[in-house]
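Researcher: Here's the sequence for the chain we discussed earlier.
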Amino acid sequence: MAASPAASGGRPNRAVLLAVTCLGQFMVLLDNTIVGAALPDMQHRLHTQLTGLQWIVDAYVLLVAMLLLSGGVFADRFGRKRVYLAGVAVFTVASVVCSLAPSLGWLVAGRVVQGIGAAALSPASLALLAAAHPVPRERVRAIGLWAGLSGIGLAAGPVAGGVLTDAFGWPAVFLVNLPIGAVLLLVGLRHLDESRNPSAPAIDVPGTALSVLGVGMLTYGLIEGAPAAGRRR
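Model: Thanks. This is the structure I predict for it:
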């Protein structure tokens, strides 16, 4: 008699899956708030003004918000494990780039790439979790744990950012992602199973590009236009 997938190890261990997906989303949410405590040190060391600090924060948040739905479609069409691990890799490499940034421009560019990685790994992590729990009651419980445990990152961000900045300077708030990303890649490659959604909708490339361009231009006007208007007064 053949062993079932769960017994033979073909199905990922749900505890490991929950830990991997929660930790990935924790990292995404942590970077929403951890940077705030490091902004004064960034301003001092990078010699930037308020507009520069706004770009450091908004470049990440906006890219995540604009590309989140597209990331979910990519995960369904091309493989949730593949997109999740690609997102983790991009996010981790971008975090290292941010920590080594010699200027504001490099730091903002790194934050943009971080946002792209986060927009890939976040919806893919949720899709992986949902696919591994086909029973609705179990799925709801798993998603609740995913949301609650990963949401701790939002609350931990300011505290962790303050401690790391005081001890090591602002680059440390990005380097903290390096060991997390490495663990996620190693464990994910070994324990996650691939899954797809054959009926996933087509990717709206022109719509996504226009959305990014439109919101980017609006954000540029809001951030760069306000100081200019203030100087004319």
